[in-house]
Recover the amino acids of this structure.
């Protein structure tokens, strides 16, 4: 029988300050970049035109750039898409010469520029995808994406407050907020294109990370009832250790699918799959190092009934307790 | 606890499996679509898999349209967009697509989805063309009916000799005749008993006249064609020798509505004058109401001053004639009879028909009267090859991901892992069946959601198995450990799944198109995963423990 991390007894909480430093080192530069440069929004959000072409020969972006320049489209973004036969041309509204309402004109110009440079359509190149989105629709979608993330927070907070207690809910939601920050930093570092599907991935990440936090909190809830003499610090460590095998297994299986999606599912889904892969790391990390210490902090600030026996845990400043023997004695 | 016995649990599981298989069984259905090459309608058998693919997987055109407000605001955009919807709907069979979607989204936006359509310019042209409404008097002198024997004769000549015809054309005609002799005999049954029998009986069945039946109202100029014969009739009417013989001053127009007589459906074919007595430009207003006194559905309409004068003159000449209302070359509904001279204000009585019909007709009139220019706010065209690539890549990634998950589970949890994997296959079947039952479409993000959910779905099993291991380690007996394991893992499973479902639900509410598909897949997946992990795996354990009651160690 294979057993991973069975009866583990790591003092996770002790290392929390290192963890804060690590996550700060990821988030702060990422957010700084985000504030300076913003994100690479897809045309769904900005409005604009996207043309994906499949060419018969690997012609390179320079050829396409030249063809578009000759046609007077100077601000389009050209990208190789997966392999050297596929290219994506994006012309966002609000950039340079791309005026609102000119989406169709842009598409026609791209088509004729390609035909001019590469030869007639079906033999030398094919337009396999074409999107034209007006800025109005883009603005609507931006609002909707924001609403979605906002409401998912509110609804989860309410659910957790009902099922657990508001202290748990707050800690879980703040941990998830941390995950959104790290994910934004991640998206910024890789300069992933933020499309609707990526927003969907961020929301799924929210669900997944909450899920992970809840599994640990569920154990905390149970252990708080079981071991009334233990302080919260010890209960948290115990609960994290007890759920460790599950975390490893579930993250393993989920990672198997997201990595398969990253490597095999093609260019369109890759940003989604990358964000989801990252979500597994940040979700696991935040459940242990953000949600749990936050719960401790909230509990200290606003002591509640739920932690009756755990109220006497050490103040955050004092030294961590000795690693505890793995046989906690139930009361009575 | 409900379902205490193994037998009842197996019954429930079996019922779910049978239900899923039933929900996923492909079926054949016959649909009429316009053949892209010839422009004719033809019957096509569509093998319909109950989960339809989204445009991003199937290829096709998605258009979102709004009323053009750039040349001044449109006061009532909701009315304008419903008129536009009516017009687009009536043109939809011009596309070679089996499952078009025409839908009003929100208040003032019209979404048109044309799976399989490849030419965006043509699609936009058809959709954005201004609607054209006209009133025409039907063929009151029965000129067309009288010309039918001549046409039949000409067809017979062409069919036998086919001089100067392309081979394909000749073969086509021969085939048509073959079909006609049988169909003609069968088709005559509903028309039997009519006093005024058309020319069919005079000679051997005529190629065209055998397809046309007199309407039961005996309205001059109206013919009924069995729905399945419409493509044949259409191709016959398009032949040059037939066209030549259609009397001068007469046009043939198809109706929009299907009339059913007995078990068969018929489409109206109308012989109308080639000159409209009035067009939509002269129409100013049309409203539907229910007459309080007679309790009849009525459409009131108002014409412009000049239109009223013209209409008064024309209707004065055509009292007791039938007037076809033609929108975009299609006769809308049953042509009403003109009871007297009508001026600027007129009304169309629909008798005892429901008010809905009157409202629909009023909408038709307004659609032709007040053209609503549409602008495209969102357009996307996906080539079929891209969709196929996406499916292929998505399935490849899915298979690899699932195989890895299976390996991890079986290696780590051994026999229990095998049980979990068996439950996982049921999970996939239930999820797909759920998608089919909700009639949702599978999009590319949905496919990704499905793959991802397989990885997440085993979480419930992992929680349970880990818990069982803990209980065993505490020295519990196998049977107790299993019971306790399921019991204690339950709250974690429920809380974590419900919170995920809540975020997915929000994603569904605010999302559009593909993202919605993703959210639905996720929600159904969560439900299916809870059923399989908690209920089905528990059942497997019960069977296992019953067979080996003295089991001292558990393979978990």
């Amino acid at each position: 029988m294979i057993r991973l991390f069975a009866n583990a007894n790591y003092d996770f909480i002790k290392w929390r300050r290192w963890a804060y430093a690590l996550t700060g080192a990821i988030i702060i530069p990422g957010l700084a970049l985000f504030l300076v440069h913003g994100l690479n929004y897809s045309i769904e959000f900005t409005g604009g035109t996207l043309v994906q072409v499949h060419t018969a020969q690997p012609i390179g972006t320079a050829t396409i750039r030249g063809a578009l320049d000759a046609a007077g489209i100077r601000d389009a973004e050209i990208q190789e898409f997966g392999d050297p036969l596929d290219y994506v041309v994006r012309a966002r509204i609000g950039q340079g010469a791309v005026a609102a309402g000119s989406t169709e004109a842009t598409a026609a110009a791209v088509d004729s520029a390609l035909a001019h440079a590469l030869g007639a359509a079906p033999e030398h190149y094919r337009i396999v995808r074409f999107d034209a989105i007006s800025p109005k629709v883009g603005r609507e979608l931006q609002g909707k994406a924001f609403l979605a993330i906002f409401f998912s927070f509110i609804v989860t907070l309410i659910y957790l407050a009902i099922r657990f207690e508001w202290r748990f809910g707050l800690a879980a939601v703040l941990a998830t907020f941390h995950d959104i920050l790290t994910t934004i930093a991640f998206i910024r570092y890789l300069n992933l294109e933020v499309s609707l599907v990526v927003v969907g991935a961020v929301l799924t990440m929210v669900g997944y990370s909450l899920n992970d936090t809840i599994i640990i909190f569920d154990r905390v809830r149970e252990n708080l009832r079981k071991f009334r003499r233990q302080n919260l610090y010890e209960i948290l460590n115990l609960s994290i250790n007890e759920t460790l095998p599950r975390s490893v297994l579930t993250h393993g299986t989920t990672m198997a699918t997201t990595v398969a999606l990253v490597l095999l599912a093609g260019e369109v889904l890759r940003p989604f799959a990358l964000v989801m892969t990252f979500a597994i790391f940040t979700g696991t990390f935040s459940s242990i190092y953000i949600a749990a210490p936050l719960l401790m902090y909230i509990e200290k600030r606003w002591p509640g009934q739920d932690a009756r026996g755990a109220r006497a845990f050490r103040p955050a400043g004092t030294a961590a307790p000795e690693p505890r023997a793995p046989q906690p004695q139930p009361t009575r | 606890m409900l379902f205490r016995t193994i037998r009842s649990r197996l019954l429930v599981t079996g019922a779910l499996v049978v239900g899923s298989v039933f929900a996923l069984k492909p079926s054949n259905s016959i649909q009429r679509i316009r053949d892209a090459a010839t422009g004719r309608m033809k019957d096509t058998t569509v093998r319909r898999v109950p989960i339809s693919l989204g445009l991003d997987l199937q290829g096709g055109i998605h258009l979102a349209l709004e009323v053009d407000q750039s040349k001044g605001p449109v006061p009532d955009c909701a009315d304008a967009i419903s008129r536009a919807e009516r017009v687009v709907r009536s043109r939809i069979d011009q596309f070679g697509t089996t499952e078009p979607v025409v839908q009003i989204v929100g208040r003032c936006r019209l979404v048109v989805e044309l799976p399989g359509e490849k030419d965006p310019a043509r699609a936009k042209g058809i959709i954005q063309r201004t609607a054209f409404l006209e009133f025409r008097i039907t063929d009151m002198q029965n000129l067309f009916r009288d010309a039918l024997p001549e046409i039949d004769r000409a067809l017979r000549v062409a069919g036998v000799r086919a001089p100067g015809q392309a081979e394909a054309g000749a073969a086509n005609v021969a085939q048509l005749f073959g079909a006609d002799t049988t169909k003609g005999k069968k088709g005559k049954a509903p028309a039997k008993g009519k006093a005024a029998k058309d020319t069919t009986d005079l000679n051997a069945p005529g190629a065209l006249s055998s397809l046309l039946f007199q309407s039961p109202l005996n309205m001059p100029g109206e013919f009924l064609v069995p729905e399945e014969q419409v493509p044949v009739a259409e191709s016959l009417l398009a032949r040059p020798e037939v066209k030549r013989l259609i009397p001068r001053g007469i046009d043939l127009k198809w109706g929009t509505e299907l009339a059913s007589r007995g078990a068969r459906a018929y489409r109206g074919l109308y012989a109308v004058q080639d000159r409209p007595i009035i067009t939509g430009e002269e129409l100013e207003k049309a409203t539907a109401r229910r007459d309080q006194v007679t309790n009849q559905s009525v459409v009131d309409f108002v014409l412009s001053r000049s239109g009223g004068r013209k209409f008064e003159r024309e209707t004065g000449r055509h009292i007791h004639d039938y007037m076809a209302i033609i929108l975009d070359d299609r006769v809308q509904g049953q042509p009403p009879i003109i009871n007297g001279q009508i001026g600027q204000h007129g009304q169309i009585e629909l008798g005892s028909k429901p008010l809905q019909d009157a409202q629909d007709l009023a909408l038709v009139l307004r659609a032709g009267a007040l053209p609503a220019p549409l602008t495209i706010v969102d357009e996307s065209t996906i080539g079929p090859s891209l969709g196929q690539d996406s499916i292929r890549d998505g399935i490849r990634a899915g298979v690899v991901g699932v195989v890895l998950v299976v390996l991890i589970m079986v290696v780590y949890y051994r026999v229990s892992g095998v049980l979990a994997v068996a439950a996982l296959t049921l999970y996939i079947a239930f999820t797909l069946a759920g998608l089919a039952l909700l009639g949702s479409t599978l999009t590319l993000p949905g496919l990704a959601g499905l793959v991802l959910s397989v990885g997440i779905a085993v979480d419930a099993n992992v929680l349970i198995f880990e818990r069982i291991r803990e209980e065993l380690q505490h020295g519990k007996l196998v049977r107790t450990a299993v019971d306790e394991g399921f019991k204690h893992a339950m709250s974690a499973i429920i809380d974590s799944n419900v919170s995920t479902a809540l975020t997915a639900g929000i994603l569904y509410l605010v999302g559009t198109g593909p993202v919605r598909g993703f959210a639905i897949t996720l929600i159904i997946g969560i439900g299916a995963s809870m059923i399989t992990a908690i209920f089905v795996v528990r059942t497997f354990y019960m069977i296992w423990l019953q067979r080996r009651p003295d089991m001292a160690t558990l393979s978990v």
Observations:
- The domain at 13-40+138-310 of chain A is CATH 1.20.1640.10 (Multidrug efflux transporter AcrB transmembrane fold).
